[in-house]
Amino acid sequence: MEPTYGNMSGMCSDAAANLLDTVPGRMLVHWYLRAYRDADPRPSVAAFVEADTLEDFVDDLVLIIGEYLYGNGANDVLEMALTAPATIEMAEAICAALRHPSRNTLASPQTHEGTITELSLPRVRNRKRPGALPDGAFWTATPLHDGTSDTWSASGENLRGLKDPARYTVHFDPDVARIVRIDTAGDWAALIAEHPLEYRGARVPDWPSIAEEWDAVHLSALGLLGAHPRLSEVPYDRYEAGGYRHSQSGPWPGVGDWSTVSTAWLRIPERFEIRPTTRAAR
């Protein structure tokens, strides 16, 4: 697998189809279809979607992932007309918007929250219950609102209980860092297939093995929507209490446990620098 840093060009057909084959992806398409029907005046589909910022998308994704994992959000989208031209056009427009350079979630710098006393090399391990998350990684988030917040704080997952955690900017060289970008279920499945760990009848990522090849794994906005069990392969039981069980079903687990757009650094590459913000430096 070749590094896919910043690879947001090309046609969206495959990624759009992936959105329509996962619960979170369908939910976002469904939300936009409903909002577009109520729009007055009504621009083109592409212009309607393009009007939203990365911050708007992130806010929607946080709600959608929560509804998928712990609510009944899937029930509204299981019978969507997937071949309807309006559905396909909306999925393509969302994919194109999320791949636009203005919404690139993997740019330098990223942010890290939490007090850093001394930077040590990540010691990546598999968790006691192996799954979608590594243990011992150094985590960064995508800046939002001109750097005043980030995807962690938008999701509510940043250092819960701390009202004002220290924040740092993390600078890296995209030409040096080897980062695998997860945009689709296929990206995630391929990474696991190359670095598999058998656990309870499924394959999960073997994080120490991944760390031998990659500096980091980045989950993009598209990946947060689409790197989940495909409905064409793992049917959703509408009578389940929430979708967390579905997210862990099938040949590999989905990325729901990541919670938000983020980057797991498995090792520190050259030209990697952490700079404290004014607040962190106090």
Report what the structure shows.
It is a single chain. The protein has 282 residues and is of the alpha+beta class. It has one domain. It has 11 helices and 11 strands. Strands 2-10-9-6 form a 4-stranded mixed beta sheet. Strands 1-5-11 form a 3-stranded antiparallel beta sheet. Strands 3-4 form a two-stranded antiparallel sheet. The chain is globular, with a radius of gyration of 19 Å. The termini are far apart.
Number of helices: 11
Number of domains: 1
Low confidence ranges: 1-10
| Bulk shape | globular
Taking Cα atoms only, what radius of gyration do you get, to the nearest Å?
Answer: 19 Å
Terminal Cα separation, in Å?
A: 42 Å
> Would you tell me the structural class of the helices and strands?
alpha+beta
Sheet with the most strands: spatial strand order = 2-10-9-6
Return the average pLDDT rounded to an integer.
88
Name the beta content range. Answer: 5-15%
Range of helix content = 25-40%
**Biggest sheet, in brief?**
4 strands, mixed
Order of helices and strands: HHHHHEEEEHEEHEEHEHHEEH
The strand count comes to 11
List the helices and strands and how they pair.
Elements: H1 13-19, H2 23-37, H3 45-50, H4 54-70, H5 85-98, E1 110-113, E2 138-141, E3 143-144, E4 149-150, H6 151-155, E5 167-171, E6 179-182, H7 185-194, E7 196-199, E8 202-205, H8 207-213, E9 216-219, H9 221-226, H10 244-247, E10 262-265, E11 273-276, H11 278-281
Parallel strand pairs: 6-9
Antiparallel strand pairs: 1-5, 2-10, 3-4, 5-11, 7-8, 9-10
Structure summary:
With 282 residues, this protein is of the alpha+beta class. Helix content is 34%, strand content 15%.
